[in-house]
Amino acid sequence: KQEVTQIPAALSVPEGENLVLNCSFTDSAIYNLQWFRQDPGKGLTSLLLIQSSQREQTSGRLNASLDKSSGRSTLYIAASQPGDSATYLCAVFMFGANSKLTFGKGITLSVRP
Amino acid sequence: KAGVTQTPRYLIKTRGQQVTLSCSPISGHRSVSWYQQTPGQGLQFLFEYFSETQRNKGNFPGRFSGRQFSNSRSEMNVSTLELGDSALYLCASSSMDGGANIQYFGAGTRLSVL
I want to staple B106 with a disulfide (CB 3.0 to 4.6 A). Which of A29, A49, A108, B6 is the partner? Predict the structure, then answer.
């Protein structure tokens, strides 16, 4: 059974810091991994999707890496801003008899001005 | 292009009642997935529909059911509501296999069971 872990559950940093958010998963037979952002009381916004054959994806100040063999992914946020404050979730997708997205519980990030 | 629309945004029900939630996917998307989000369990997969057929189902009791119409709109029904069903219910649409491609989420329906 696939399990996705995100530690720590919460993080508070001053504005301008470069951040690394970690995600680990137990079954390396994934098809892809996605990072999402969720603002309070809102739905999820997809930030980056990394296919299993890729090592990283970049979008603006965000960079996500994937090491499938070790079951790890990181989301790097450069020059953090207060507007980056949100919960960041990673999710892995596996094909199979019960293909679905399996989510971590998320990291709640607070960027202090 | 309009995003994923979920209605209603908020619902208050009492134990034993039933509820129906609606999800309109992005135009052209044929896959709709439903998730339950609670503080304790996080996001849990309920089911996925593709071209009016349920393709996958999560580990939820039979009180949770859904369907998809020919225009790809989907509904989720919960019968005999329990207090523990209080949650944010999210639907997501994608162009192909749910999760194999980018999933676009709606804002969710917040269900409170009293």
Answer: B6
